[in-house]
Design brief:
Number of strands: 10
CATH superfamily: Vaccinia Virus protein VP39
Enzyme class: transferase
Number of domains: 1
Oligomer: single chain
GO molecular function, one term: methyltransferase activity
CATH class: Alpha Beta
Helix content: 25-40%
Strand order of the largest sheet: 5-4-6-7-10-9
Strand content: 25-35%
Keywords: Methyltransferase, Transferase
EC number: 2.1.1.-
Protein name: Class I SAM-dependent methyltransferase
Length: about 210
């Protein structure tokens, strides 16, 4: 059974990989690799995975990890820039780092910070660290984020990227049952063309998408 791509809505999808737990499909239009919807966790099962996360602002190792996105993004910001951390999780830390640097931050997380009022305004920058791989409907969510990004603003994403079909089979990233969407450089380049964004890659898991 096939399904339309959850990022670009193309029906041109096909088999990419399978293991003992799940199937993985790929989109021939935007190159997203994804788990079919009927194999996703339930909402309760998904939250149980996140509840086991032990991230905290006092964890210097976690701060260094987030620094891979923080450092290149903060270099692009003007004084007084206003940001949104999407998918902030049970222990918001990146937002604390930006606030310490002098930037105001709003938080949104469907489980831990479900504040719908954040969608009543726009932002100079939006971050989503280790988030997009969890999204059942990444096309809808990314478009919403871009809709709330001011002209010239930057969307900073942290997610491991698909390298090849061969590497995918042994990839630790697909072992997490809450990971259902897997992006490659080609996928982000497609997003750049689709939404008129300048795309810049940093390290092996950070991409900045800036509105022209």
């Amino acid at each position: 059974m096939m399904q339309t791509c959850p990022l670009c809505a193309s029906p041109d999808t096909g088999h990419y990989h399978c293991d003992d737990e799940r199937d993985y499909l790929s989109c021939r239009h935007c190159a997203l690799v994804f788990v079919p919807a009927w194999q996703h966790l339930s909402t309760a099962e998904e939250k149980a995975v996140y509840d086991r996360h032990e991230n905290h602002p006092d964890d210097l190792g976690y701060r260094r990890f987030l620094g891979r996105l923080f450092t290149p993004l903060v270099a692009r910001l003007s004084p007084g820039a206003q940001g949104l951390d999407f998918g902030s999780g049970p222990g918001p830390t990146l937002s604390v780092m930006f606030e310490e640097a002098g930037y105001s931050m709003a938080l949104f997380d469907p489980f831990y910070a479900p504040d719908a009022s954040v969608w009543q305004r726009d932002y100079d920058f939006i971050t989503a660290t280790e988030v997009v791989e969890h999204l059942a409907a990444p096309g809808r969510e990314i478009e919403r984020l871009l809709d709330h990004l001011r002209p010239g603003g930057c969307l900073g994403l942290m997610t491991k990227r698909v390298r090849s079909r061969e590497a995918f089979a042994d990839w630790h990233y697909i072992r997490d049952p809450s990971h259902v969407a897997f992006f490659s450089e080609s996928t982000f380049q497609w997003l750049g063309r689709r939404f008129e964004l300048d795309v810049t890659f940093h390290a092996d898991d950070v991409v900045l998408l800036q509105k022209r």
